[in-house]
Design brief:
Rossmann fold; 12 helices; five-stranded parallel beta sheet; elongated; nine-stranded mixed beta sheet; 677 residues
């Protein structure tokens, strides 16, 4: 047994006072008158013995009562620790406010239970102690040590946060703040559901550090999440129908049937279908979207799922141009078949320019550039095409039958594309279509013998570089390529082995091949621009092809559900780069603009889905895996403050000593009342 205030034990010296009173007060003689002196000896002997016993019992009760009272003021306790630290403490409390804490316990949401436990922990300590209240935001105030009242007020102000952090990072921050308070004894608490995706503690370097894990356990761990969405086509045209893929996960232990998936697009909300998701599985669903309006599209996928709802909405945004520009670069005259094919597509804007009058600065505005039988390629054009491809452009090459092979090989070397080899004037038919690649995927109902394929009278041998990621889209019977695709930077290069001239190829007369091939090349892309982003992800967002501004250094702003702010921004040759620095905390659509009523770009932001998987460590798992830390059972006591106090200070006994003092005083009264001398 130890004492919190051992100085009070000096008060035991006052026990001498009742002893002295006993010695002096009870020795006084009392005169008694008797009528018959023959009974005197008998009465004296009997009365003296009872009086001595009564007085000794009264003295013992008083001594015991005073002793118990002194010991109660010294606050005795039984320590649970071998080396109990005395003095003020620096108490760091991490309260997990991520969205997974929306799950329900038997009494309330885990976050509300954690907030209550945090208050009780603070109340378990004295006013001399100092407190750090830490959450996932890691705000400046959370790096300070506060007084007791300030800490309680800060706990009341806390709310959910979209930010998710590994617990190893949280523990490092707690230690770095606590270590600054050298005169205070450090105590660390972590209140969380301890999801397996974020619980990654490392062994403690300081074995004397007191770390308490306070797990919050949900009654039922179930959650459905919309994880992501993406289009099959990276570029979309007006009036067309496209496939939207979405991935959903069931993180519960029971299968979910008839899950209703909704879609809001172009101001209309409609059901997108019902799904059955097996327990612990992820499925992919397909939705068809028809593009009826140009401009920016803002859309939302949703499901109804309780109680964890932060991942029930998935926002995505994408632009839709009224016309997709295409440029045909020709040497002598443009091929009429190209003009007829492109102008027949109302979604495209077709332009023709000769090699001698090119404006290289406009290249990045075109979705596709066609080299229409150019006889020779200049080094300047090759350099500009290389830059155009690096930024995501697409190039289609139809070679001239008497082409300057060396200049074409310079282009293929610069772009790691298919290289022109020897010229052959022999009749050869195309026999195979790569229907797995985007250009011809789902274009034809079948590819039987009734489908007419191109036949060439003259062509170049095409050699795909072994290091490239190229593939053949159309090929001859001997396995050589008629049309090949390669990637360069963010762009694509399509190389045809034969000229367009009908003297050497009848490709232009095969409309069922030629027209969809051109249209799909405009829509294709090696890397699709992101239609959605994740809140809290540290990355630069690139905004390309913004209109030119009159200001030399324009200041772009963003606005959305989370308010208006100025992001960090860099203007580059390819466009604008912005960094958000955690300024977005609420999911939804955010517009980039110079003038508020004229948005230049629209971003969709969603909450991080790492919190969707609700698998957690049980208290036993935590204690077994990290034995250096102590796991506190949140349901161990009704009074959690007393539980914490006992963990820190041991089992307090002062109440029992005070009760004993009152008991001995009561016994003294009974002796005085009923014990007659």
């Amino acid at each position: 047994m130890q004492f919190l205030y051992p100085g009070f034990l000096w008060a035991l010296a006052f026990l001498a006072i009742p002893v002295l009173i006993h010695l002096f007060y009870f020795r006084r003689f009392k005169r008694v008158y008797f009528t018959n002196v023959r009974f005197l000896r008998e009465v004296q002997e009997e009365t003296s013995a009872r009086r001595r016993l009564r007085n000794l019992l009264v003295l013992a009760m008083r001594l015991l009562a005073l002793s118990m009272l002194v010991l109660a003021f010294a606050q005795p306790f039984l320590s649970r620790k071998e080396n109990l630290k005395q003095g003020p403490r620096a108490v760091s409390i991490y309260l997990d406010n991520s969205f997974s804490m929306q799950a329900e316990s038997s009494d309330a949401a885990l976050f509300e239970l954690a907030r209550q436990r945090a208050r009780e922990i603070v109340n378990a300590y004295s006013n001399e102690d100092r407190f750090q209240i830490l959450t996932n935001e890691l705000s400046e105030r959370q790096h300070l040590l506060l007084e007791k009242e300030e800490a309680l007020n800060l706990i009341e102000e806390l709310d959910y946060s979209p930010i998710t952090r590994p617990l190893s990072q949280i523990l490092d921050i707690q230690q770095s703040v606590i270590q600054k308070a050298k005169d205070l004894h450090a105590v660390l608490y972590l209140l969380s559901d301890f999801q397996r995706s974020i619980t990654n503690f490392q062994p403690l370097q300081d074995s004397s550090l007191e770390v308490y894990l306070v797990p919050m356990q949900a009654v039922v761990q179930t959650n459905i999440s919309i994880d992501s969405a993406w289009f099959e086509n990276p570029i979309r045209a007006l009036g067309q129908t496209y496939k939207l893929f979405t991935r959903l996960s069931n993180y519960g232990e029971e299968a979910q049937e008839d899950v209703r998936l909704g879609l809001t697009h172009e101001g209309e909300t409609k059901p997108a279908g019902t799904l059955d998701i097996p327990a612990g599985k992820t499925i992919t669903d397909t939705i068809k979207l028809t593009m009826l309006q140009s401009g920016w599209h803002q859309a939302e996928l949703n499901v109804d799922d309780y109680p964890v709802q932060f991942d029930d909405r998935y926002y995505f945004a994408f632009p839709l141009s009224k016309e997709l520009p295409v440029l045909n670069i020709y040497a002598e005259k443009p091929h009429p078949a190209l003009r007829q094919a492109f102008e027949a597509m109302p979604q495209l804007r077709y332009e023709e320019k000769p090699l001698s009058r090119l404006d290289y600065s406009t290249f990045n505005t075109y979705k596709l550039i066609v080299l229409d039988e150019a006889l020779r390629l200049s080094s300047g054009l090759i350099a500009e095409l290389k830059q155009y491809l690096a930024q995501g452009g697409k190039l289609l090459i139809f070679p001239h039958p008497q082409a300057d092979i060396s200049s074409y090989r310079q282009l293929s070397a610069a772009l790691s594309s298919a290289q022109l080899a020897r010229w052959e004037e022999i009749e050869q038919g195309v026999t195979h279509i790569n229907t797995e690649e985007f250009i011809f995927r789902e274009v034809f109902e079948n590819t039987d013998e009734a489908l007419r394929l191109p036949v060439t009278q003259g062509r170049y041998q095409l050699n795909l570089p072994p290091s490239s990621s190229g593939e053949m889209l159309l090929s001859y019977r001997d396995g050589s390529a008629f049309l090949a695709k390669t990637e360069w930077g963010k762009g694509l290069v399509y190389t045809c082995a034969a000229p367009l001239d009908e003297q050497y190829s009848n490709l232009t007369r095969n409309a069922e091949i030629f027209v969809p091939m051109l249209f799909r090349m405009v829509l294709a892309g090696s890397k699709a621009p992101a239609i959605a982003h994740t809140i809290g992800k540290e990355e630069w967002l690139e905004v390309e092809q913004l209109p030119l501004q009159d200001q030399s250094e324009p200041v772009y702003k963003m606005a959305g559900p989370g308010g208006e702010f100025i992001p960090e921004q860099q203007i580059t040759n390819s466009g604008l780069r912005i960094h958000l620095r955690n300024q977005i905390q609420k999911a939804g659509f955010y517009s980039l603009y110079l003038e508020k009523d004229k948005p230049l770009y629209v971003f969709a932001f969603n909450y991080d889905r790492r919190e969707s998987d609700l698998q957690t460590f049980s208290p036993d798992d935590l204690q077994r895996q990290w034995p250096q830390m102590q796991v506190l059972d949140t349901y161990a006591r009704a009074d959690f403050s007393q539980y914490i106090s006992e963990q820190e200070k041991g089992l307090s006994l002062w109440r029992w000593f005070l009760i004993a003092a009152l008991l001995f005083l009561g016994l003294e009264g009974l002796i005085l009342r009923f014990f007659k001398a």
